[in-house]
Amino acid sequence: MKHRAIVTGGASGIGAAIVERLATEGLDVGSLDLSTGFDVTEPTAWDAVGAVEIACLNAGVLGGPADPAEIDLESYRRAFAVNVDGVVLGVRRLATVMPTGGRIVCTASLAGLTSIPEDPVYAATKHAVVGFVRSVAPSLEKRGISINAVCPGIADTPMLSDISRERFRSAGFPLLGADDVAAAVWVALTSGETGHAWAVQPGRPPVDFRFPRVPGPRTADDGSVGAPPSFS
Ligand SMILES: NC(=O)c1ccc[n+]([C@@H]2O[C@H](COP(=O)([O-])OP(=O)(O)OC[C@H]3O[C@@H](n4cnc5c(N)ncnc54)[C@H](O)[C@@H]3O)[C@@H](O)[C@H]2O)c1
């Protein structure tokens, strides 16, 4: 029997390229997209999702303007709902229905690894996705499920306005193709890693991004302290 896969936001851009790539790899792929009646922000929509071996939580939208004084409440809430709730609700459901060996890849963004002054709300949502993926990985690992994030740079998809596309073109700045991102998703899915973030840029293989260690506490006698005990 073919392995089953779902891709959120699979009707356009990167999601459509992931659907195509997974089908080429021999999977039985379903797209869950707003345009075909599946809203990732609706908790009850996820109840209908059954067992799949692979899930790509990819649906996403932009956040809003650079100037915080101009942030529109509806767009702000929409961005968090689609980009963050859509991932958390998906992972919550998949944790209960995915078989051992299940693999999840979330489409974050380079905006989850670095600052994006042009759209701080979008950056906040994608930092949330990266933080969630890294933090939830150990619990999912206990269930035999892996989770990774891909963090693409700018990709030429319908998310990009014609004005932006033209600006990048005239500046000679290379853009990713949606199929480049789909190839990186496949690398992340087959990496054997979990809790990692894969940076994706034109002309490079996906980079397994390394985060710096955060500073730990110091004791009065200036000794170092190990990792903290578990909260729970
Ligand atoms: N295009 C880029 O430059 C770029 C760069 C890095 C990351 N990303 C991320 O890649 C992902 C895909 O973006 P894209 O560029 O292909 O955009 P896109 O606009 O081409 O496709 C997004 C898809 O998500 C669907 N969608 C939106 N809201 C939804 C919802 N509530 N429920 C279900 N589906 C919903 C849309 O209908 C659409 O089919 C997003 O998470 C985006 O943030 C894009």
Report how far the terminal alpha carbons are from each other. Answer: 41 Å
State the low-pLDDT regions, or none.
none
Q: Would you identify the CATH H-level superfamily?
A: NAD(P)-binding Rossmann-like Domain
Give the strand content: 5-15%
Bound molecules: nicotinamide-adenine-dinucleotide
What coarse outline follows from CA principal-axis ratios? globular
What Rg, in angstroms, do the CA atoms define? Answer: 18 Å
Helix content: 25-40%
How would you classify the helix and strand content by structural class? alpha/beta
Pattern of helices and strands: EHEHEHEHEHHEE
**CATH hierarchy class name:** Alpha Beta
Briefly note the CATH topology name. Rossmann fold
**How does the major sheet shape up?**
7 strands, mixed
Number of strands: 7
Strand order, sheet with most strands: 2-1-3-4-5-6-7
Number of helices: 6
Instruction: Work out the count of structural domains.
Output: 1
If classified by CATH, what would the architecture be?
3-Layer(aba) Sandwich
Description:
The protein has helices at 13-24, 43-47, 73-97, 120-142, 162-171, 178-189, and strands spanning 4-8, 28-32, 54-57, 103-107, 146-152, 197-200, 207-208. The protein has one domain (4-208): Rossmann fold (3-Layer(aba) Sandwich), CATH 3.40.50.720. The N and C termini lie far apart (41 Å). The protein is globular, with a radius of gyration of 18 Å. Helix content is 38%, strand content 14%. A seven-stranded mixed beta sheet has the order 2-1-3-4-5-6-7, sandwiched between helices. It is built from six helices and seven strands. Strand 6 and strand 7 (207-208) form a beta hairpin. The model has no long low-confidence stretch (mean pLDDT 96). It is α/β, with parallel strands linked by helices. Bound molecules: nicotinamide-adenine-dinucleotide. Nicotinamide-adenine-dinucleotide (NAD) binds next to helix 1.
